[in-house]
# Entry
Amino acid sequence: MAEILPIKAWRYKEELSQSIEELTSPLFDVVSAKQREALYQNPINSIHLSVPRGEKPADTAADLLQEWKAAGTLVQDPLPGIYVYYQYFRLPGSDREYCRKGFICHIKAYDWNEGVLLRHENTIPSAVNDRIDLLDKTLLNTSATHGLYTDPEFVLERYMDESIQSPLYVTEDYQGVRDVLSVIHDHDVIRHFLEVLESRQVLLADGHHRYEGSLEYRKKRMVANPNHTGEEAYNYHLMYLTNTEADDLRILPTHRVLEKIDLSDEEFLERLREYFVVTPKEDAYELNEVIVGKNWAFGLYLSGNAYKLRLKPEAHSLIDWAVPQEVKDLDLTVMHYFIFEKVLGIDREAQRDYPGLSYVRNFTACVSQVDSGKARLALITNDVSMEQVKKVCHSGAIMPQKSTFFYPKTICGFLFSSIKENEFISSDTACL
# Structure
């Protein structure tokens, strides 16, 4: 099953790490344009490596990485370790403080058909290509993807709880989340982490594009290496692993916003009525509330008018996509099949990279984009449950792209991991 390895992380030098909050940045797929511009003003912020600018961004990042190494801005930790990462957070309307517990390590970049690492949603091709180019030029993982392993006995938590008492960093990030990082160097404990994961599958929660970038890069290097063994550094990927059995895993909904459609409002609503019960609503800001707990229900905000959509039960059997029942039953499958394919005429493959279709987590932002004229309509959806994610992963199928938003997001800048051979901890070395 899953082979993981400790890492010798590259981190900001001690003098800089005292102000680590000034060096961290959001992941490349969630950072806003305004946030980017503010972060770019700091010449050594991690965003210059994770979301580089310039005519050839990947080359720019590679050159900058070498400068930072040479100047001692980034220094490689002398010992391999498992890096423990806790995120303390609250959700709107609740006083409870959650703590998502996990650890960061290398994991072998398994092909999907190997059945070790399981995905649950589709990717957007252009985003994958960007990640391959960046990895190819820098040989650096700038941020960990988020994977899930299942351990009802919580055998690793006691080691993590002990380690987190001596943190390397404690900071509050852009989400208002308190992020804490520590490291485990004890060889026997590290071996225990490796042994526990040996018998587990891993579900990919977040970072499908970054993982697929590593996977495609591995394939590229395998073809070019006639002496490929599977143990080379390019076979591995940086991942943050958390336990599916913890009650601090939170998945938030990701809504859909369309800039334009080639139908009048009346034509669009009429076509929707073939499959949905369409109910006008007075207040757009209640659309996320009127669908809570209702199967195959969506909020629609169209040209300033609000509607609740509920699929007619007899229509569900019309879904003819070649996917398992677990996928057909998902709200987002219903949305993408009936609204995007049947009503708007956008076929399933074209939806993956459709111009003018954006994915927005913030409900209020969806309404604002329509009100401002930046978008024609917003489709509001419920969240996906952890149980649904598990069922889809184990079915071997995948959800529509951007189906889940695991909250909170990990941040970039605490550490980086290299897949240069002379900077990498091999499986032989890790198990000595």
Q: What stands out?
A: The chain has two domains: 4-250+407-418, 254-382. The radius of gyration is 22 Å. The longest strand covers residues 98-108.
